Amino acid sequence: MKKRIMVVDDSRLVRVQLGDILDGTDYEIAAYCRSGEDAIAQYDEIKPDLVTMDIIMQGMDGLDAAELILKEHPEARIVIISSLAYDDTFEKARAIGTKGFVDKPFHQEKLLKVFEQALG
After folding, report:
1. pLDDT tens digits, residue range 25-60?
2. Angle, helix 12-22 to helix 108-119, in steps of 10 degrees
3. From CA 12, how far away is CA 16, in angstroms rounded?
4. Burial classification of residue 68, based on how many CB atoms lie within 10 Å of its CB (0-12 exposed, 13-18 middle, 19 or more buried)
5. 72: which strand partners?
6. C-alpha span between 5 and 29 (Å, rounded)
7. Which helix (H) or strand (E) holds 103?
8. In what helix (H) or strand (E) does residue 100 lie, and over which residues does it extend?
9. Residue 96 CB: number of other CB atoms within 10 A?
10. pLDDT tens, 60-73?
């Protein structure tokens, strides 16, 4: 059975790229959310195995959304996918309990490795 992923990113290009990369793998995209608020609202309904979360989006940013999801669902597996690859961003993401960080632009091999580690 495929692992279900919730993609949280306001970029249509990123959503298309993730769909292409995951095609033919053990993962399927169960839901797309364009904002942190959407992700929080849909998490209970979707019950994803993994969430990919961008940081910079309209409204609530991805780190705040991840923190709220993890407070409500400590078992959630969230991987940050962002171009904000700075030490303080890594530290904050790790401190709130996310399971990995992939910087943009991303490649299939690295992405799947981080997904496996997050779910392991």
Report:
1. 999 999 999 999 999 999 999 999 999 999 999 999
2. 80
3. 6
4. middle
5. none
6. 5
7. strand 100-103
8. strand 100-103
9. 17
10. 999 999 999 999 99
At 28, give phi and psi (nearest 5°): -135, 145
Kindly report the pTM of this predicted structure. 0.94
List, as one string, the DSSP characters of 26-78: SEEEEEEESSHHHHHHHHHHH--SEEEE-S--SSS-HHHHHHHHHHH-TT--E
- One-letter amino acid of 14: V
**Which neighbouring-strand residues pair with 27?**
3
Residue 114: both structure tokens together: 């981080």
Query: How many CB atoms lie under 10 A from the CB of residue 102?
Result: 18
Q: Indicate the residue type of 25.
A: T
d(CA 77, CA 70): 8
